[in-house]
Write a structure and sequence with these properties.
With 100 residues, the protein is mainly alpha-helical. The protein has five helices and two strands. Strands 1-2 form a two-stranded antiparallel ribbon. The longest helix has 20 residues. It is a multi-pass membrane protein. This is Ion transport domain-containing protein. It comes from Cirrhinus mrigala (Mrigala). Keywords: Membrane, Signal, Transmembrane, Transmembrane helix. It is found in: Membrane.
């Protein structure tokens, strides 16, 4: 996930800045794959055990994992996983259809 995040951090701004055609198949595939993997990571975080801070014990109770994740990183992960480019694409398509 770290490599994918760093890839997005570098590839997306460079692509937006220097390449005018963002609808090429490699660009679309990269966006779809990265967005999908970020959403899968979000779902998997609800099922991943957590090591307790004070011991070597691992927390495996799904309810406790869910509560802890919702209180900690869920909001940040959720907001960062929203596929904004698809939302813009749908708005652009709708505006294009309305203009015709």
């Amino acid at each position: 996930m770290l490599l994918l995040m760093v890839g997005n951090l570098i590839i997306l701004p460079v692509g937006i800045t220097f390449f005018k055609d963002e609808n090429t198949p490699p660009w679309i595939i990269f966006n779809v794959v990265s967005d999908t993997l970020f959403l899968v990571d979000l779902v998997l975080n609800f099922r991943t055990g957590i090591v307790k801070e004070d011991s070597t014990e691992i927390l495996l109770d799904p309810k406790a994992i869910r509560q802890r994740y919702l209180k900690s990183w869920f909001l940040v992960d959720f907001v960062s996983s929203i596929p904004v480019d698809y939302i813009f694409l749908m708005v652009d398509l709708e505006a294009h259809l309305d203009s015709e």
